[in-house]
Every structure is written in C-alpha cells, then in structure tokens.
Amino acid sequence: MGDGHDPLLPGQAKASGEDGESWLLSYLDVLTLLITLFVLLLTLTDPAAETASSSPAPLPGVAGPARATGTQPDLTGLLPRLDGVSVSRSDAGLNLRIQDHLLFASGQADLTAPGTDVLHRLLPLLEHTRGTISVEGHTDDVPIHTRRFPSNWELSSARASAVLRYLQDQGIAADRLRAIGYADTRPLRPNDSRRDRAANRRVELVVHERRAGP
Hints:
Elements: H1 12-45, H2 47-54, E1 85-89, E2 94-99, H3 113-127, E3 132-138, H4 152-169, E4 177-181, H5 194-200, E5 202-208
Parallel strand pairs: 3-4
Antiparallel strand pairs: 1-2, 2-5, 3-5
C-alpha cells in the first residue's frame, strides 16, 4: 500500500541537487567573465594605467629611466668658449683641437703666457674624463731648418711635449699622457693657401675614453 505519493526512484533526490548546483556554477562563471571584461575595459581607458604600461622598466642597478650601457657622459658643457678651440667626438673618444697661434709663437715650441691660460681653462674638462690623453702636434708643409728644429718632425714633437709637461704640472696623471709629433703628415686641408696652412698648424688633445663596464 502506498501513502498517496509516487515512490522516489533510487538517486532521484541526488540528481535534483546536482541540477541546482549546476545552475549556480553557471551563474558564477558568467559573473566572473563580466567582472574580467569590466576590469579589462577599465585598464584600457585609464590614462594612468596606460602610462605605467608604456614606461620602460629600469635596468637592474640603474635608478630612474633605463640608460644605454657603455655610453659616455656629455662633457662638452665644461668647454669654455674660446676662439680657435673646438671639441668633437670620434671613434677614439673626445678631441680638443687648438690652433697653434693660441699656444706658441711662430716656429717656437715654448708655451706663451696666453697659451698656458688657454690650457688652464681646458683643465676642468680633462679632469672629468677618463683614459689616455694623446697630445698630438701638427704643422703645415712649409719646411723648417733651425739648430733646435731641423725639420717639422722635431717642431711638432717639441710642441706636443710642451703641452704634455704643462698638463702634468697641473695635476694630470703622467700615466694618462703621451706626446706624438705628426709634422705635416695629417693635414686637415690642402696646404695650398695661407688660410689652410694656418688650419693645419694645431695641437690636438685626444682623450681615449675608457668605456663604462656593464
């Protein structure tokens, strides 16, 4: 005899509970997708988030914006404004070019008083550099033949040595310095005019900069 209700088949109540949980899980999945979509849209439209994502991350051990390794600091701001003195960069490093009349009298290799003043004003720049400083003397192609200077080789070498000795006396380490005389073998311009010959007579300070380590 029954009690008026249909008998439950085995496992029927369990199936009804699983159907309810399945509906709840589906609702939670949809809600999670909506929240994810909302966060994504907020990130794409937030200027602060966009700025943060576009800024490069700093390199390890480097504060602030990322910097390229091995680059040299810009020291040209330390160069005083001097007529007849120019600064440039090359594969070797920093190059200071000084016209000879600023340092020496014609055909001489003794620094003049104005010449020592010019070099003194270049000292702050040289002191802020690293590496070897090559002091290079250059002449034009007009021959010289005196007791002291039998040729332009001796003149250019003596001028380079005079500048080197002054720099050493002012505190530049001797192991950073070397003097080279090129005579007229490396002209800047053809030696076919008075103006071009004057440009070729010069002393160059070439700073062979040491590259910064990683």
